[in-house]
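User: Hi! I'm working on a homework problem where we have to compare a predicted structure to a textbook description. Could you give me the structure for the chain below?
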Amino acid sequence: MRRKDREMNREFGYQVMDKARFGVVSMMDENNQPYGIPLSVAREGNALYFHSAMEGKKVDIFAGSPSVSIVFVGDVKVPELYREEELEEMAKDETKASLLIRKVFTTEFESAMARGRVEKVTSEEERLQGMKVICNKFTPTKMAYFEAAAKAGLYRANVYKLEMEEVTAKRKKYDAQGNEIKQAASVES
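Assistant: Happy to help. Predicted structure tokens:
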């Protein structure tokens, strides 16, 4: 990671994964072409679960080339650190204009990336658990109906699991005074 001052630890990465509404799974297809697809991904411990149809391009890719990376994006926003008068002053003063680039035309963000090998879950018990993890993340208020839904539809879906071999996370954030929070943390693999 080039910006080590923005690197965050594995636990922070897990937090980003847990709140992200989707993850983008990136892989290489049979023609060595990049292929990425957004999926509903949920985490349990060091494992990520997602599901798919029984056939399709990603199913074929996973069977032949299971190494993937999954990227998650958490909170993103444009910081509002200056009043209009301060922005006017910056625009007129060349010595302060670099602040416009660094603190106005920028975004605060948090992201995480996991790498590993995708495996198709074959045991019925773990398939059910994987779907439960996914549903609990995306439809927690409907879990009373999970068993009936799983019984009716689990046989129609593949469930995949990725044991995370590597996790990296990054954040750019400003404090109330407009200073970037530098919180470098070691990343466990």
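For your comparison, note the following. Confidence is low (pLDDT under 50) at residues 185-189. Helices lie at 10-19, 57-64, 84-92, 97-104, 124-138, 146-153. Good luck with the assignment!
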